């Protein structure tokens, strides 16, 4: 999953960035609202962490603009303001959740995972597609109850497919959401990693729809 972190406090940004990366998130940083606005409108993200107190204005200003323009990706706001009126302003602007400073990075991670799950229509923290399971908190994958050893990149790719299932996910969507924009994969990298997942999970579980993309299957197709 890919997150845009909008925070001008460099120490806090480093702490959150490290916590997210340690949990296999792709993180991109913005230090002000104008930079965040450009990135939100030109790049693909699964969620945004938005500080309210930014050097170029209140973060709710940018958030309101995104919502007015139909940009509906989930946004978690950070605020040092404890008054209910300030929190209400964030929700009115279009926030999906908020965390009040100071906070534990683990709380942010729990809330982000929940936001992304709900965006894809999942309420439970353990995603299941047939006999395949992914614990979104630990990133542990099991197949028929047995653990599956995956690389970090394979886990990110599978996680995105599981969140999206049974929807077909295009190659370009995977490239945008599973890989850092500064290290976008070559044309065959996704194919290679899908092939590796098929060897570990069973070839039939990831179907290729020519000209459309990939779909994670819950049941093996019948021969008929």
Automatic annotation (TrEMBL):
The modification 4-aspartylphosphate is found at residue 51. It holds the Pfam family Response_reg. Residues 124-218 form the OmpR/PhoB-type domain. The keyword Phosphoprotein applies. This is Response regulator. SMART domains: REC, Trans_reg_C. Residues 124-218 bind DNA. The keyword Phosphoprotein applies. It comes from Vreelandella lionensis. Keywords: DNA-binding, Phosphoprotein. It comes from the Bacteria. InterPro entries: CheY-like_superfamily, OmpR/PhoB-type_DNA-bd, Sig_transdc_resp-reg_C-effctor, Sig_transdc_resp-reg_receiver, WalR-like, WH-like_DNA-bd_sf. Residues 2-116 form the Response regulatory domain.
